[in-house]
Amino acid sequence: MPTNPAKIVPPPLSASLMGLLVLGGLIHVGFGFLLGFSVDEAHYALYATKLDFSYFDHPPLVGWIQWPLVALQAPIGVLRLIPEALWLLSSLLAWQLARDPALPVLLRMPKGVSSNAGVGPATGDQVEPAQQRELAGLWAVGLILISPVLHVLAVGLLPDTLLMALTLGLMKLTLHVCQNNTIKQIRLQHWLLLGLLLGLAGLSKYTAIFSALAVTLVLLWHFGLAALKCLGLWLAMAVAMVIVTPVVYWNFTHNWISFVYQIHHGSGGDWQFKRFLLFFLIQLGAYGPLLVGASAMALWLGVRQRQAKGLAMMLFFFIPFVVTAYLAGGGGLPHWTAPAWLAASPFAARLIAQDWANGRRRFIKLLVVVQALVCSLAFTLLFFGGLPGVTAQDKWGKQNPFADLWGWDQAGSVARDLAVKLDVAGISISNWTLASRMAWYAQPLAIYVLDDRFDQFDIWFGQIPRNSDTIFVNWSQMKFDLPLKSGQFKSCDFIETLPIARAGREISTFDFYHCKSWGGRP
């Protein structure tokens, strides 16, 4: 019986790849122009309005890269073209890595079949290795597209968005230089590029140290101790250190507060085992069981088959993930592991592509459908600002996380107008997570955070002057008592309420007060 080629040869992958990238781009551009700034986005956009060598909570690249567009007063939708382009770059790098013949294969092969070839899904005919690698490249992009948290980082520019692309770039370069037989064969431009990527990663986020460690360990595995004697490696490290000099200088002139803050912030509160277990459940939801499961399987197969080369490259995933998982026992955020999962995606894609070619498709299809439905549900809730029909007065509407992305532009404008009208010193807020949006949308007014936590706002705006008046803003989704305790404001007069509506219903409110004569007590 003749073989049906359609069952063996995948469809044109170039068209499929473009389709996935265009779909992702349309989603991100659409929400980029639709939604207001999130907490972190506004905070990092403020970096660009107040350029410095570094900042209290993160290195400066996330602000520097936005500065040209911010200086031109570009709208938020245009600013978001930066993370959208970084998502596209990350997807293409993952695609290239997954289809790179040099990438170590960590696959579940049938008995008696070489790891260099797959098996046709129904006929047992051999599939060309190149075709299976092309399919893996497509799956790498698909895994990124159906991972919910990666869409968040594609719309909002966070340090992790930068680190995702840089981590994959470091993986690709490290894989390339390890094709040389001796370390002396590595060209000077590759060492310089390695130093550049490491330096940019260091300017993005402090956790870039994990990528630097992975690069070093992979080079040591491949070239042995000769790597440490190579001037090229030390040149790369020197280039990286020169690039991150601004961060070191800023911390030196600010009593190393950023380093101290990150050490405490990363460790969180008291370590709890239930938080550690919850971390893994959150990862399943944030990145999807297909990426998480296939990555774990690839890692396990590498250990079982003792594939040292493959395990060495998986250090780009393993080191940051293990450290973050442990720290999650003290508290953590789901997007902290995004660069690690991007590093694992080529290995996961290779395994999925082989299972697909070998006919094990039903479970893969099921997980794809589930993850696509989760993403679609999240997009729907984002569009409607929460559950359609549920208002801020309803039980589920009083703690609506999606209301966080609506109304801050209006609230900032009202607060700024009131401050000018009443001739007050600035705007006061009870918590820094509320301050970043207000500081962005109420520019150029000073924003004073009334808590006793030292942060970037204290560096930018200082302490609220004693005996001064401000416009105090309260938001219904994170409401605080009026600051009228002894040593705080002497009085706070209600001015007005601003209701925020989305899809014909009220999802939150902002209350504005004229608070007088600050006493100096946080």
Distance between the termini: 82 Å
CA radius of gyration = 26 Å
Number of strands: 7
Which shape, going by the Cα principal axes? globular
Order of helices and strands: HHHHHHEEHHHHHHHHHHHHHHHEHEHEEE
Q: Note the total helix count.
A: 23
What is the makeup of the main sheet? 5 strands, mixed
Strands of the largest sheet, in order across it? Answer: 4-3-5-7-6
Please estimate the helix content: 55-70%
Mean pLDDT: 90
Which class of secondary structure composition applies to the elements? Answer: alpha/beta
Strand content: 5-15%
Contiguous low-pLDDT stretches (5 residues minimum) are 1-11, 111-128
List keywords for this structure.
522 residues; alpha/beta; 5-stranded mixed sheet; two-stranded antiparallel ribbon; 57% helix; disordered N terminus
Molecular structure report:
With 522 residues, the chain is of the alpha/beta class. The protein has 23 helices and 7 strands. It has helices at 13-34, 39-49, 61-64, 67-71, 76-79, 81-98, 129-145, 148-155, 159-177, 188-204, 208-223, 231-243, 245-253, 257-267, 273-287, 289-304, 308-313, 315-327, 338-357, 362-384, 408-422, 432-441, 456-461; strands at 118-119, 126-127, 426-429, 447-449, 470-475, 491-502, 505-516. A 5-stranded mixed beta sheet has the order 4-3-5-7-6. A hairpin with a 2-residue loop joins strand 6 (491-502) and strand 7 (505-516). Helix 10 (188-204) packs antiparallel against helix 11 (208-223) and helix 11 (208-223) packs across helix 18 (315-327). It is globular, with a radius of gyration of 26 Å. The model is unreliable at 1-11 and 111-128 (pLDDT under 50).
